[in-house]
Amino acid sequence: MTFNNRTSRTVRSLAYIVLTATVVIIVIPVLQVFLSSFKTNEEINRVISLPSGFNLDNYRTVFKSSAAMYGLMNSVSITFAAMLLAVVLSSVAGYAIGRRRERLFAFLYLLFLSAMMIPVGANLVSLYSLLRGLHLTNSRLGLILVNAAQALPMGILLYTGFVKTIPREIDEASVIDGAGYAKRLSLVVMPLLKPVSVTFIVITSVNVWNEFLLSLLFITSESKRTIPLAVYTFSSSHASDFGAIYAMLAIAILPPALFFLLTQKYFYQGMTAGAVKG
Amino acid sequence: MLSIALGTVIQLTLAVLIHMKLKGRALARFVVYLPAVISPLIIGLTWNAFMQYTGIINESLERAGLPGLVADWLGDPRIVKNSLVFINLWQYTGIGMVIFLAGLSSIPQEINEAATLDGVSGFRKFRTITLPLLMPFMTIVLFMGITGALKVFELPFVMTGGGPVGASKSVVMSIYENAFGYQRFGVASAIGIVFFVFIAGVTLLQLRMTRKRETEY
Question: Where are the transmembrane segments (chain B) (predicted)?
Fold first, then answer.
């Protein structure tokens, strides 16, 4: 939109005011967490105040309890494993669905996509009895499998759409060159799918990282808690130690915020790609 | 419903503003989207400090000389739902904004130029040209807003426990409570199925309604 008359200046300054106000409203709560994490509890009780200095006691309390360390380590490994599984499965499925013209594959595609409509909440009971039957409750493997499964529909949607844009001739050329199915997939197709893989990983890993309800349900021992669950249990066990809770919140906010800072571009692309096709 | 409409208006406004190529728009876009990548559980705990009766909002109101506006944001059954809706909106505004932004940049420049040549500008141009072309994106944003709002769990779970007197209980929360609090797995499954049918219904209706209003160019 371009404005080149006199009103443009007023419109522009109005736009600045609105944007600045929005940014301030969004920043304040986040800033408050970081400031409070350096306050003593007595300072936190005086609600509106600045910390008197860089007081690191709260962070010491958090790291003494080992909850943060376990939480971060588990979240990293669960997110990584779930994403790896989801990428491998959905790229192979997306490749097949994108290439085959038979009815069966169109049906499978719809079947996978319809899973997107089922909210996790509606599945709670059946998921729980399924995992208990498989002896996968209170296990990281169980969480990895469920999270990967949650990510599949989105992955299949993205990969199928992308595979359709890759010319068939590339596949055919590799067949003529004597590549078998496995080789064609791993050496020819996978590298071509890289852009969509990046988008998929960036967007979905945040969902896996933030997942709370399922971990709350399945994980009982401290050493297996993911970071949201660790924050939750920590905030109830240290209910009166506000400073420590804020330090814990700050630690929990940092990784996704940094991740987002570094991968912004893919978020914006991915939100659009997923949304337009969905 | 009202909150989703309001949310969409805010998102669209922000997208239009950011699309104006002002300085600092990359920063604004980053900040507005940021809460969406943080776990709603953590957001809920963060906002707790603001919404308690002795929390930051009330304290600021007192100091600003507006004690009349002090309210029990989480403890009053009439207010609590609005408080949670506000936080949910605060967190996910960025997603809608980014989708609308993509929509705005997908509108061909020629259409805008043609409109300007025809002497259409300002708000009228927005209403007659930009908005119809944004309808597909509107579908997506509305759809995500509705299903997202129905799936809320973490916010009431950490902030109010569904209370006071169930005023802020969400569907997912009551499934969770029935199954794992009262061991009524049958009831929980039933709510789950109704919930699924409802979401599927809303989605289909939504898609049908907004698709009709989409414009081809």
Answer: 30-50, 89-108, 129-150, 185-205
* pLDDT tens figures, B119-143: 776 777 777 777 877 877 777 787 7
Give the whole-angstrom CA distance, residue A30 versus residue A40.
18
CA distance A206 to B192: 25
pLDDT value at position A278? Answer: 40
Q: Please compute the mean of the pLDDT values over residues A47-76 and round it to a whole number.
A: 77
Quickly tell me which residue has 């049958």 as its tokens.
B186
Complete domains list, chain B, with CATH: 2-212 (1.10.3720.10)
Burial B170-199 (b: 16+ CB within 10 A, else e): bbbbbbbbbbbeeeebebbbebbeebbeeb
Instruction: For chain A, positions 194-223, list CB contacts with chain B under 8 A.
Output: 206, 209-210, 212-213, 217
Does position B169 have pLDDT exceeding 80, yes or no? Answer: no
pTM, two decimals, is: 0.80
Gap between the Cα atoms of B34 and B104, Å rounded = 21
Residues of chain B with C-beta less than 8 angstroms from the C-beta of A10:
none
Instruction: Identify whether the C-beta of residue A235 lies closer than 8 Å to the C-beta of residue A245.
Output: yes
**Structural domains of chain A, with CATH:** 7-57 (no CATH), 65-277 (1.10.3720.10)
Closest by CA to A131, choosing from A229, A83, A227, A139, is A139
